[in-house]
Amino acid sequence: MKVQVLGGHGGLALGFNTTSFLIDGKLLLDAGAVASTLTIDEQVNIDHILITHCHLDHIKDLAFICDNCFGMKKESFHVHTHMTVKKMIQEHLLNDIVWPDFTKLPNREHPTMKIHSLQSEVKTVIGDYGVTPVKVNHAHDAMGFIIEKDEVALLFTGDTGPTEKIWERGKEIQNLKGIFTEVSFPNKLQNIADLSDHHTPWSMHKEMAKMPKDIPVILTHLKPNFKTEILLELKNLKESRLRVLEHDGMIFSF
């Protein structure tokens, strides 16, 4: 699998895009930067979109990818997420107030976007992939995803604080090749991280003891205004399997 990081930060600023991973050019995980980083032809090529949770930095480009690709796709974009998140996208984003409801445009039979509900810990075939959503410790029924194709599996937590179940499921996967997870705040803001269900380097250091052993861990979602401080604190951990996203646009091959 090839993972292209369209956006890997926990905030939006010049040079920093919000969360969006493109897998093999066809499967999108979160929609924080897809419309602003890909050509329209590349956007049209996407078939399925996984959404971890309903926060704006993970869903905002659902609006713009629909607008950009309207009338250009033979098939709808298929969005897969928890029922709670589906409801919030429909009520608060694609609601004909904030933005047109592309789940019924150009018509209900053949809309630009269809949104499907996933049940936590139930593996589903989505395109060429086996996808297992697992609830994590973040707001509004947030879920991470274990994504499998051929002999490769990857684990994406999305936004989360200290959590349990996804690590238990990850340990059951024999062909797990990489973990993408988050660290958002510096250690001095541990209280804010706790309140918002995010990680600091300190809490991530403790979290690594729960993870499947000897699997590379790629950290994303750093807040742009604290990135330098967080990078220094992560370096001081001296964890050899940690890798921090250096910049948006990076490509990882597994």
Distance between the termini: 5 Å
Any idea of the CATH topology? Metallo-beta-lactamase, Chain A
- Output the helix-strand order: EEEHHEHHEHEEEEEHEHHEHEE
What portion of residues is helical?
A: 10-25%
Question: How much is the radius of gyration in Å?
Answer: 17 Å
Strand numbers in spatial order across the main sheet: 6-5-4-3-2-1-14
Shape designation = globular
Give the tally of structural domains. Answer: 1
The class by helix and strand makeup works out as alpha/beta
Largest sheet, in brief, is: 7 strands, mixed
Per CATH, which architecture? 4-Layer Sandwich
Q: Could you name the CATH homologous superfamily? A: Ribonuclease Z/Hydroxyacylglutathione hydrolase-like
Q: Which regions have little confidence, pLDDT < 50, spanning 5+ residues?
A: none
CATH C-level class is: Alpha Beta
Mean pLDDT figure: 97
Strand content: 25-35%
- Count of alpha/pi helices: 9
Total strand count, please?
14
Secondary structure elements and their pairing?
Elements: E1 2-7, E2 20-23, E3 27-29, H1 34-37, H2 40-44, E4 48-50, H3 56-59, H4 61-69, E5 77-82, H5 83-92, E6 113-118, E7 124-126, E8 129-135, E9 143-149, E10 152-156, H6 165-170, E11 176-182, H7 190-196, H8 201-207, E12 217-220, H9 227-237, E13 242-244, E14 251-253
Parallel strand pairs: 3-4, 4-5, 5-6, 10-11, 11-12, 12-13
Antiparallel strand pairs: 1-2, 1-14, 2-3, 7-8, 8-9, 9-10
